[in-house]
Amino acid sequence: MAHEREFRNVLALVSRGLKGTSATGLRRLGLHVGQNFLLEELCRQDRQTPGELARRIGVEVPTVTRTAQRMEGAGLVVRTPDESDRRAVRVGLTDRGRALCGELPEMLDEVAGQALTGLSGTERRQLVDLLRRVAANLGAAPSDDPPGRR
C-alpha cells in the first residue's frame, strides 16, 4: 500500500503544480483555468454547439455553457443561433479569441517543458507511456482522450 499512497501523493503534487503554473500563464493571456480546453477545441473546429464541445473536452453541457458565457463576457467567443436550428446555439471564436490559438499551445508547452526539466528524451517518453497505461487502467484509454488532451 505504500506505493499506492506515494503514487497518489506525487500525482497530486504534480497536478497542483501544473494547475498553478498554467494558471499564471493563462492569466497573462486573459484566460482562467479550464477555459483553455474550450479555446483549444474551438481553435481546432470553430462554431460548435455546447453539446459538441462538452463531448469533445469531456465535461457536462452546463459547464460548457457557463464557461462560454464567461468567455463571451471577456470578448473571446460569441454565442449565436444555429442557422439550421434556431433553438440551437453555436459557440465561435472572436478575432481576439482566434489570436490566442497560437499563443495558448506555446504557453502550455512552456509549462510542460518546465515540468520535464532534467528528464532525458528517453525518460520523457517512458513517463508519457507509463501515464498512458495508468490512464488506461482507469478506463481512460488514449482513444478516449479529449482531442485537447492528447
From TrEMBL:
<feature type="domain" description="HTH marR-type">
    <location>
        <begin position="4"/>
        <end position="136"/>
    </location>
</feature>
<keyword id="KW-0804">Transcription</keyword>
<protein>
    <submittedName>
        <fullName>MarR family transcriptional regulator</fullName>
    </submittedName>
</protein>
<dbReference type="InterPro" id="IPR036388">
    <property type="entry name" value="WH-like_DNA-bd_sf"/>
</dbReference>
<keyword id="KW-0238">DNA-binding</keyword>
<dbReference type="Pfam" id="PF01047">
    <property type="entry name" value="MarR"/>
</dbReference>
<dbReference type="InterPro" id="IPR036390">
    <property type="entry name" value="WH_DNA-bd_sf"/>
</dbReference>
<keyword id="KW-0805">Transcription regulation</keyword>
<dbReference type="InterPro" id="IPR000835">
    <property type="entry name" value="HTH_MarR-typ"/>
</dbReference>
<dbReference type="InterPro" id="IPR011991">
    <property type="entry name" value="ArsR-like_HTH"/>
</dbReference>
<dbReference type="InterPro" id="IPR023187">
    <property type="entry name" value="Tscrpt_reg_MarR-type_CS"/>
</dbReference>
